[in-house]
Amino acid sequence: QVQLVESGGGLVQAGGSLRLSCAASGLTFSRYAMGWFRQAPGKEREFVAAIDWSGGSTAVADSVKGRFTVSRDNAKNTVYLQMNSLKSEDTAVYYCAARSLVWDRTASRYAYWGQGTQVTVTS
Fold first, then answer.
1. Is the pLDDT of residue 64 over 90?
2. 91 vs 11: CA distance, rounded Å
3. Is the dihedral of CA 87, 67, 7, 52 positive or negative?
4. Tell me, what's the pLDDT at 2?
5. Are strands 10-13 and 117-122 parallel, antiparallel or unpaired?
6. Fewer Cβ within 10 Å of end Cβ, the chain: N or C?
7. What residues are paired with 82 via a beta bridge?
8. Partners of 59 in the β-ladder
9. CA 83 – CA 63 distance, rounded (Å)
C-alpha cells in the first residue's frame, strides 16, 4: 500500500531553518506530483508548495515565497521542503501528499497523504 512518511519537523527559533523530507513507498514515485500542505490549530489545511513528477515545475504559496523551496529526488523516492527564515506563523503540522503527474493547489485533489510532522517556530 502507499505510504508517505514525513520527517524533519521540530522546534526552531524564528529566523532559523528546517528541511522536511517525505519518503514515499508503494507507488511509482516518478509518476506522481507531490504537494506540501500545512494546518495550524483552528485553521484549515493550506497549500504550501508542490512539484510535478519530473521536478521541472514547482509552485509555492505567496506566504512562503522566497523562503521555502520544494525539490525531489526520484532515485530516493523522496520530496523535500527547505524552509528558511522561519516565522512564528509558519507553526503548523506539515503534510506531504501525492497526486498523478501534475501539481495542484487544492488539497482534495491529492490521492495520498502522510501523517504529518509538527513544525513549531518560537519567537
1. yes
2. 9
3. positive
4. 97
5. parallel
6. N
7. 19, 69
8. 50
9. 12
pLDDT above 90 for 35: yes
Q: How much is the mean pLDDT over the chain?
A: 97
Task: Specify the DSSP element, H or E, that contains 12.
Answer: strand 10-13
Predicted confidence (pLDDT) per residue in 67-101, tens digit: 999 999 999 999 999 999 999 999 999 999 999 98
HSE at residue 59, side-chain half, CA atoms within 13 A, is 16
Residue pair 117/93 in contact (Cβ under 8 Å)? The answer is: yes
Radius of gyration, CA atoms only, the chain: 13
Q: CB under 8 Å to 32, separation ≥6 — which residues?
A: 24, 53, 98, 99, 100, 101
Q: Which triple of cell numbers denotes residue 87? A: 516565522
The set of cell numbers assigned to 83 is: 524552509
